[in-house]
Design brief:
Layout (H helix, E strand, L loop, with lengths): L8 E5 L6 H7 L2 E2 L3 E3 L16 E14 L2 E10 L6 E7 L15 E9 L4 E9 L5 E10 L6 E11 L2 E11 L19 E8 L3 E7 L6 E11 L5 E4 L3 E11 L4 E11 L8 H11 L3 H18 L2 E2 L2 H17 L29 H11 L1 H13 L1 H10 L22 E4 L4 E4 L7 H17 L2 H22 L1 E3 L4 E3 L25 H20 L2 H10 L4 H13 L4 E2 L2 E2 L13 H8 L5 H7 L17 H5 L2 H10 L6 H12 L7 H14 L4 H13 L13 H15 L3 E3 L2 E3 L11 E7 L2 E9 L2 E5 L8 E5 L3 E5 L4 E5 L1
Parallel strand pairs: 26-30
Antiparallel strand pairs: 1-7, 2-3, 3-4, 4-5, 6-11, 7-8, 8-9, 9-10, 10-17, 11-16, 12-13, 13-14, 14-17, 15-16, 18-27, 19-20, 21-22, 23-24, 25-26, 27-28, 28-29, 29-32, 30-31
Amino acid sequence: MNSGRNGWTWEYAGYVPERERLVEALCTLGNGRFATRGSAPECAAGTVHYPGTYLAGCYDRRTSLVEGRTVENEDLVNLPNWTLLRYRPLPEGVAAGPWLSPDSGELRHYGVRLDLRRGILHRDLLFRDARGRGLRVGHTRIVHMGDPGLAAQRTTFHAYGWQGEIEVESVLDGDVANTGVERYRHLESRHLSGHRTALSSGGVAGLSCRTDDPGHLIALAVRTDTSPERPARTIGTSTGTVQAYRLPIARGRPAWCTKTLALRTSSDRPPGDPLAAAVEAATHAAAFPALRAAHEAAWRRLWEEGELHVPGEAGRILRLHLFHLLQTLSPHTADLDVGVPARGLHGEAYRGHVFWDELFVLPYLGLHFPEVARALLMYRHRRLPAAREAARRAGLRGAMYPWQSGGSGNEETQETHLNPRSGRWLPDHSRLQRHVGSAVAHNVWKYARATGDRGFLHGEGAEILLEVARFWAGAAVLDPALGRYRVRGVVGPDEYHDAYPGAEVPGVDDNAYTNVTAAWVLARGLDLLGELPLARREELCGRLALDDEDLARWDDVSRRLHVPFHQGVISQFEGFGELAELDWEAYRARYGDIRRLDRILEAEGDTVNRYQASKQADTLMLGYLFRPDELAGLFARLGHRLDGDTWRSTVDYYLRRTSHGSTLSTLVHGWVLARLKGAAAWRYCEEALLSDVADVQGGTTGEGIHLGAMAGTIDLVERGITGLEASPEGLRVDPVALRELPRFAFTLSCGGHRGVRLRMLPARLGVRVPAGPGGPFSLVLPGERRFTVLPGEERWFRL
């Protein structure tokens, strides 16, 4: 892998089959509406290659029989493969040979280059047979950022040492399944049925099909153009189409073939026949050079709004991360009803579900693309009825958001999961991660403070936040002996500990992160009610049946939720300090990589529930969400003194007991240590940067990128190191020095201004506000020093 000389290209030289799935994921192209993996056009799905195209929010529900029990899963659907292109040279007087591909023995050169600036994927191949006849093939692919329903792929052929024809088959293949994750091989993988083809003049082939539940109708149409122009021999199959061409070729006389895709669905507005609409769009789409030019212009606009400039290798990786964030959640996302898919639109891991990753994604979007952040919060609001119903079934009021969400907003977490190390199917209790509701409420509050969008906060946002507060007020039960409220039977962000050792009932009690964030939600709920206009307050209190007694309980619970401690540190949950210590060095010596310690121990017949061992940041997530003064204030409200020494001791304690089995873990540890000015901060930050590009989790990136970790590394620079917080008082900046990242720059939207540029240098901060009709830009620096920067002005400040 080479990140390119100018920092704007990501390159892979040579064909390495074992690396191909990683290349496909990291070279995925998308536009927020759909994405196509960066697979070789020559190859169908198999053990090495896995082409995939995914439409945001397009899920299908299927049932499977696993070890005698029926299991239901909702999956992000792999759509028909529009990229497939078969070809072979036909030299004069020589019989046709096999179709060529990267796996052909004649392959002499293979290179993949992703152009981040322009959103273009290039793939170059050179084949040479035993008689020295050469064929150079170049693929150029775009998924159009300007028109979210279009994509295109141009393939150019150059002959060396021969002349004749190149035989080409442009394929639209609907015989696809969700087989991109080996762990899911026991589950039903076919999601498309009712295939219908349409062939029209002008080289356009169309295909429609539908999912089963909820029944999305999907249509793809591909227009194939060639040079020299030749008529197609068209073949229709039960699940797709093939358009075959024979193009004359000779040295100095190249040939090319372009596939232009139009994608339409039954969810499009205004409604219509998706297949007819797709065929029409493909027929009238511009030629490839014009499509490419408009696509590049759209990317230029995106980079202007989302600029982040960090020198060196870290900056190149951050740019790749930002590229994938922008093509998963682009301005087009603002028009859709979708959430944040934890693995992007890049693969099938986690079945395309929405977890809590917007906690790591929305801070960036709120500062750069606030309309996209708002749309993602509206996804949660539209699923508020499902969250209310989940709470009702649990015997509680309010809203209980699911740990895994998809199309409907119901709980999509599987009830069993496979340990690939032992081959055993095990109960999955991760749905007990009730803290996801607090994350949703936190996102609502922080978005409103960063953007000043009081309309949303007082409208849909208030409904979300107050319903989550209502849930926590009921979920907390007073323990008279302790004199505090307790939340029992949950799973924290750690995920390893889903029960006490030997317990028959799942869950642990009083997870510190869960309880502290619940207290925060309750306190913010009271604050919000206090600032609402009287009419809106009365409307919400009436609709939610909130009276003075309820609000008094909110206040009481927010002050008396139990937070356990042991040995002078915050306990991850009640009883954590009583668990056995793990011999970490022995396990590292025996297994090397122990990130998935839970799987290792289960395969040994043991359980991680017995040990003081965490998969990822749990208690330390509090240091990610809250500034030190905020966290100290929260604990003071709960009746505890959390000083700097106690927090440092807590950080040190869990650093030694965490296996980092999630890509989010090193990100959070790096953030927390950077804010504490810890010596090891960069080690964790660096691993977070490398999580996907180096595939540190051992093969998981090929199943889909880790979008939360990618966005979180960007946010680490923009907010973590700078101590930046956008608020109604202005932009607060309280930086910490990180020697490995001494200087960087980025733009943001804040205080009614778009395109505000910040430049961080050692001990100095530059702020430039674009000229415009807005008022002065307010800035708050350490020591509560307050300044303003006028539109059209640039000022520098000492830190």
